[in-house]
Target: Exocyst complex component 3
Amino acid sequence: MGTRRVNMRELEAAAKASATAKVTNTLNRPGQLEKIEQIKQGFVRKKASKEALLKSAMQQQLDGVRIGLNQLHHCLEDVSEINISMKKMFELFTDVPDLCKRLNDIKEENMRHSQYVTARENLKHIFTVPESVEKTKLLINEGKLLHTHQCLRDLENSRDDLLFELHKLPNQNPYENSMMKAYFADVQVLSNLLEKQLTFILSRTLNTVRKDPTVIVTALRIIEREEKADEESLKQHKQTGFLPIGRPKKWKEMAFQILEKSVSSKIEGTQVEEREDNKHWLIRYLELIRMTLLEDLRVVKTLCVPCFPPSYNIMDKFIQIYHGCLSIHLQEIIQNGLKGNENVTILSWVLKTYKSRDMLGHPDLMTHTENLPPLLPTAVIDSLEEEYLKTIEQNYMEWMQNTLKSEKEEWRSYTEPHSESYSRTAAPIIIFQMIDQNLQVAKTISEELTIKSLNLSIEQVILYADSFREGIIEFKNKYFEDRKQVVYYTQYMIVILNNCLQLQELGSQLEKQYTNTSSHDLSRNFNRLRYTYITLRNDSVQYLLEELFIDLDQHFDKLFTSQWYELNPADTIYVTIEDYFQDYRKLVESNYKYVVEQVLSIVGKRYLTAMLSKRISFKTYEECTKAAQRIMEEAWRFNNLFANLYNEFQCENHFDAVIMLAEVLKSDDDMLSFELHRVVEKYPDITEDHLLRLLSFRGDLSKSDIKDKVLHVDKPKVLHRSTVFKTLVFPKLVNINLNF
Model:
């Protein structure tokens, strides 16, 4: 209480201080004194408003307290009344045990009465069980299923009622139960007979529904009644613990099991051939399944749907049954082992045909099949695809080995290749036709498998290049061991070059067909294929030209020797090249161009090498001028030769360098420095050794003059390109030390 007073005093002091500050601030402003009455009235109104709000809040608080007190008072009265009622109820419970004892005789009498009533109600069935059993058997044999079921239900109800009465007895007698069950034992036999009859009818559902749908309807009515009886018996068992004999029968579940078994049997029975009878057995079998499935589903949709209760959802259920049985049976076929293209047949049928308009993809079936799982598990599909890829890989390896063996035999034969515009064999085209056939097969399965098959095919073509290279090298070595052993080496090397290029071109054409495929591995493999066969083509060109340059070696050795003037070896080189190119014209254009460029490069380089090898030197300027003139004539002649062979090549012409060096040789002393500057400017990677060797030709220059001329040549500081002189390296340098 003291704390509350202190708080009130503090609040009052704070309010006074706030009011004082507010009045001070108001009156400090100019012109406020004239408005003091107005200001005072404003404060008074605000005070009255605040006081009214405070009073209203206090009144609401008081009203709430009053209502709460009233409710507490009512609760107290209710608690008091409940307490009195509970005491009265406990007083009444004290009399219950005595009352139960007094009513025990009535309870026993009631139980006996219930048993007598049940016995009287079932008296007719109890005394006529044998006759009823025989009558029911007769009805079963006559096919009167509804009457049969009615009789059976009467017998079962009598048995179950009596057994239930025995079950309710506090002290059950096992002998009485056994005697009752034995007396009604034939009832369960009747139930089994009816179940067998229903099984037979349901197993022939699709045939029966076409001839006499009422038989199916009758069987389903009986099953539905038994399903309701199962539900009632299970409910009774939950409440009382009593479950009639043979319940639940689950005949609806049995019906679907029978349908599934009949579908499975039909699928197995559709197979009329084995692999030994017909290599196309699987294709024929799957087609028969397709036709059977469509016909059965048509019957189900048009005839079974009106007969079956809607709750059976028979169309969807039948599709699921067919789907499951097909899946199991196909997996059994796969586990038994497939051969050849049987993997492809199953994959194509499962992934394409099965989902197509010809089967479950039909517009009339799509609403029933959209939620079906895959026909075969992913692991099985992956296994089939892997087996298929292994099969085609093995086929590629065997076929390419046989192809290469056939090619090798042809190379070593004494038969000249067929003369055509361009010499080549059919092997590259056949290889890619085989690839195309495999891809067309893979397309019938899936795009993913097509890409895998394409990658595998390209990898096999790349691997073929290794064996192809080994065969070419073996062929070349055998030829150069004894050139008489192989008669048509040049012609078959031309065929090999053309085949290499064709394999690369066919690969590029195949790549264009799959440009929309976003596969990094595929793009990389195509690049590898191009690189592999272009490299093999280039190496094979060297093997081809090795023959030419073996024939030319002795003539290159005579260049710029004492025999150069006498025997004119350049003419022999010219004629030999021209002769060889009569055969080389059988090369396809790009190969021919490459060969021309290679021969031009090698011949020019070897001519320059011979020219700078210091085999001879001239004593006088006139001799040097004469030699230079001859060099230029030979260079022009070679230029004309290669221009006639192919006038659109883009490689560096080394004979232009020969001509320029010849200009240096025939230039007089005053122009020599200028000519050297021209050479160095055009061929910036020419070395001091090259220049010294060139000037050593001249007989009119001493070593000191040569040294002086070379020293005054300005070498470019930056080399923008490489020329032929970068590859011209001589084992022994000219013994003149210069510093550029």
